[in-house]
Write a structure and sequence with these properties.
Elements (H helix, E strand, L loop, with lengths): L6 H4 L2 H5 L4 E5 L5 H9 L13 E5 L4 H10 L4 E3 L4 H8 L6 E5 L19 E5 L10 H8 L6 E5 L11 H9 L8 H8 E3 L6 E3 L3 H12 L1 E3 L1 H4 L5 E8 L3 H13 L11 H12 L2 E2 L2 E2 L3 H11 L7 E5 L2 H13 L4 E4 L5 H12 L5 E5 L3 H4 L9 E4 L6 H8 L11 E8 L3 H10 L4 H17 L1
Parallel strand pairs: 1-6, 1-9, 2-4, 2-5, 3-4, 5-6, 10-17, 13-15, 13-16, 14-15, 16-17
Antiparallel strand pairs: 7-8, 11-12
Helix pairs in contact: 11-12, 18-19
Length: 451
Amino acid sequence: MKRRCWLHQFNTFPYTRTHRHFALFMEMRLGKNLVVIRRVALYKPLSKRQGIKVLVVCPSSAFLGWSDDLKLEGIRPNYLTGSRAERLEVLGDNDANWFLINKEGWKYLPEIADPSYINWDVVCVDESTCIRNPQAKITKFFLKNFRDVPHRIILTGTPNPESHLEFWSQMAFLDGGFLGCKNYWDFRAKYFEPEPFGFGWVPKPGTLSLINVALKKRCYILKRTDAGVEKHVVPEKRVIEMPKHIRELYDKIENEYAISDTVSTKWAITKHTWLRQLCCGFCEDKLVWDAKVQELKELLTGELAGEQVVVWFPFNPPLFECEHQLREAKISCAVIWGGVEVQQRMEITRQFRLKNYRVLLIQVAVGDGGQGLDLSCCDTAIYYGEPDSRLHSDQSKDRIIKADKDTSLLHIFLMAKNTVDEDVHEALAEKRSNSNMATRLKELAMKRRAS
């Protein structure tokens, strides 16, 4: 028996029926996948003999979500992964209909854009922000190809994490341009102007209104609050005091751009990274204090005993240290980081959802904040250190949300007192974009030192 659509999913169909190519800008956990699957089922294939041919381009971490949704609809997913020979073999399977490829897969299998290999009925780009940069090779590939595909689809909940300029490439994938501009540079010149003091571009007067009106006419936009499924989030800070010798090292890095007499830098970004790593307990990849590790263990064996928890890390060394210490404490856990293959990530996530692990430790940059990972089996996320990217922050928080859950959600932030940890948390709370995060962090650091 097939699943019933939620009301907000059902309400998307009048829009999808009136647009040959469509964009679902729906926030995470609102069930975009099911809308696409049900809509595609109503399309007439180019070849009745072969049936509908669908290509879904998505982050590797989204494979499991798509796979589960397709299987629940009685559809067998096919993965364009592995060696080039294995990918070509899957692509040539005449009995296959739905194909999943990660957003880097086009590099190893450019044949996906060659009609002599396969004629697609549908190409769907999930998390379409992967083609938001007009100068990126992936963007050029997808804008150049697939123009004759009968149905093109883009999906994301955050289409413009940095700037309204990012809409052009995504809309151009659907329509060949946006707001009358067939070229990104024309779009920028017509609707934007250079910042007075900086290197970015800001909208000209009236531009935001024009963009918003155009998007409302062309795209389906839905937030969780509008869908009636917004969750109550309980944020909790756990502030940890640095011991004297670590504070002295922190101050040396912050003020002198140096770890020691022999290790120094002139770059602010390097200093920032050193400070962030030190807040996680590490200096030059060596553990120098373990207060956050101990705080995490106390939480998992005390207030959160028996609960499933996701823990997010900005760097790998603290992730591996926590894995080691949790295993020693007999706390069942699994890890996902860049060295874990796609199929392994899918299986680890599946086992976590089956409650075979209590704790899932994840490097936040993997899959852009865990894009596509459904971790809604738990209600608690712990941030060992928050990401510098607003996009990663927002997407990681959305991993434990599910539209049909009524429980409140708990976000716990482990922060070293009077450090860059607090600066990052405040800048993210202000909804700063990546483009001005660095400036705001500098302001907050100066304010913190002055106080």
